[in-house]
Sequence to fold (176 residues):
Amino acid sequence: MIHPILRMGDARLLRVAEPVTEFDTPELHALIADMYATMHHASGAGLAAPQIGVNLRIVVFGFDANARYPEAEPVPSTVLINPVVTPEPGGFEEGWEGCLSVPGMRGVVPRHARLHYLGFDQFGKVIDRVAHGFHARVVQHECDHLDGILYPMRIADFSRFGFIDALFPGQDIGED
Ligand code: NI
Fold:
């Protein structure tokens, strides 16, 4: 089922989400299926459960190619539950981000260039990876949603934040 995506300003996006305590349940599998359906319907690169009003520490992300981020390298399709993200040495990197909860806009956000992430999939299997580039950016963006943080809160230079059609006139990179 495709869910409406909450938009910035909704207080439910600002909560700290609760850990998942039971894996491989029909309810969890149904929620993950809904999150994928909602993400794909919106052509998103990722989606966090709080964005559909579910206050649990679950994110989904990944794509082979994404219309909203045509330059981005592929990111493995991943269900990540109760994630722990640890920056690795490598400093910060700037890059453009958008968010399905902030439709029509983009901003440049500094993120850790490299990180380690640890968590579980929907079956309770451990996911333990290192990531860099857009993959690392997506993980940080989605996991921020679990702590009530939206990307505009991470922007350092507001001269590079705005509406897509005003920032990139003539380029078709999607409406949101
Ligand atoms: Ni987002």
In short: The mean pLDDT is 95. Residues 26-41 form the longest helix (16 residues). The two ends are 20 Å apart (CA to CA). The pocket of nickel (II) ion is lined by residues 99-101, 141, 145 (CB under 6 Å).
